[in-house]
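U., I forgot to send this yesterday:
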Amino acid sequence: MSDTPVTFDEIDRRILNALQTDASQNNSELAQNVHVSAPTCLRRVKHLTQSGVIERQVAIVAPHLVGARLTAIVEITLDVQAAERMAEFEQVVASEAAVLQCYRVSPGPDFVLIVQVADMPAYHALAHRLFTSLANVRNVKSYFSTFRSKFETRIAV
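Result:
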């Protein structure tokens, strides 16, 4: 897979929009919903997957129903921003299940993390594991969600 944007037509757009709404559709249902034949649909989905446009298909779980009631948005600033030190930090947070997303950002902090945990004691334990025990973390600023007014996974295509 490359980072070169993939060109696609209206059929591909309809397939992508339909899958972003409901990826549990079987090929026949998807083909019917986007108004193409089942073989055409299957070929198009396979191409979109192989080209990397479709990264993966997942189920989106309601966090509060599985015990993850606290969402934190965490800004991290490192002492040393050398490429290898930033990669080390990314490797550490990648292994932590509670870290749902990790972004290198600029300007401001070096990273922004989206974290989902059960409660404040769980966040405290995570913060100790990831931030206070790592020598290269200079500053941590955490924001705790009090209400989620929008959550969307769709990308406009």
